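Aim 2, interim progress: modelling of the zinc ion-bound target.
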Amino acid sequence: MKVLRLHDTAEGRLVDVEPREPGRFSMYVCGPTVYDVPHIGHARMALVFDVLRRYLEWSGLDVTFVSNITDIEDKIIARANERRIPFEELTTTYEKAWYDAMDQMGVRRPDADPHATAYVEKMVDFIGGLIDRGHAYETSDGVYFSIETLPGYGLLARQPLESLRAGASERLEQAEDKRSPFDFALWKKAKPGEPTWPSPWGPGRPGWHIECTVMSLDLLGDGFDLHGGGQDLAFPHHENERAQALGGGHEFARHWVHNGWVEVEGKKMSKSLGNFTDLTDLLEQADARAYRLLILQSHYRSPLEVTGDTIERAERSLASLDAFARRTSDLPRADADVTVLERFVEAMDNDLQTPEATALLFDTTTRANAALDAGDVDTAATLAAAAKEIAGAMGLELRATAGEVDAATAALVRQRDEARAAKDFAAADRIRERLVASGWVVEDTASGTKVRRP
Ligand SMILES: [Zn+2]
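Predicted structure of the complex, ligand included:
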């Protein structure tokens, strides 16, 4: 019987993933903090979980996918104050930038994208419950979760807390009257110049970790199937989400899945190292599908190196897939080759071995081409159907017609029309240049931007 196996961070090994309810699957993935343009590390996370979601659906499961938008947080407040604009203006701009980029990459929108600011009241209630249950305490500057009250804290860290203390001190919140250095803020009392909400502990705002706990439980219920995110979120963010849920008397995620980081020219990509690489740059310079292919060609838990060379190689591979799609577009309809599909399922069920699945895709196109060369149309048709099936299951779009407007281009056209409607002509021009660079002829018509191949 088919069983999906995934590496569960809480167990530190591969486990069988069996849904809470037969036929249905619930997953929560931490979304972006919208204070800047998305970087390619976030995009990897989004693509990895988009592939998982699509594969689960392709497998016949009814998937509910929730991914939040963090629209209130220290970095948002700092950036908005720097620019002297209301924080909502900043978050609206960057939420749009996030979804524009996701649309271009063919990352499907979540079924729900709860916003932290819309959940403050529920978070306040939840925090009150934690205090009542003896898991949280008030200090001069906020309300903190007491990790010593929760047996098993540190599960997702996968190492003793003592060894983390030295290495992670900069990631732990500093506060004078915390009982343990690992205790973390559930509620932050108001400081001047900050947006606030009312609470029993005075005006303030929620800490970051509480939003995901409250929103995931609210939308997916206790014991939802899977919680995902980048591996840098496992500790302390996910650890703390879990502590809050258990402290509140809930059953939390049944499985934890984390993707590896992105390396740019050999270094872990992060803004603090100064090698911040924004996704918009990548999407301007390359076929939006290239990054998905690159991500598929490496295992989701391995570090991924992104360089001009690896992106170019991915674009060349895409060109060969598109050529294959064109060559096989007129073949008679056929059922997909069963053996190929079985091998695909075997690879994907084995902790999402997308490198194997992608190699299988290319191998199948090679065999289909060879069958066509030999005049064996029936074999070619079943193999071509299988290739298209598995590419689709991983969200990889093959373009049979050079003139067809693909999803990424359609997204750009829409963004250009929005920019023009908002009289942001500089942005409209940048998008025009991007379309032209991808080989489109761009025309302004009464009904908006039209693109065609020359
Ligand atoms: Zn989260």
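The pocket of zinc ion is lined by residues 30, 212, 237, 241 (CB under 6 Å). Residues 195 and 205 are 7 Å apart (CA to CA).
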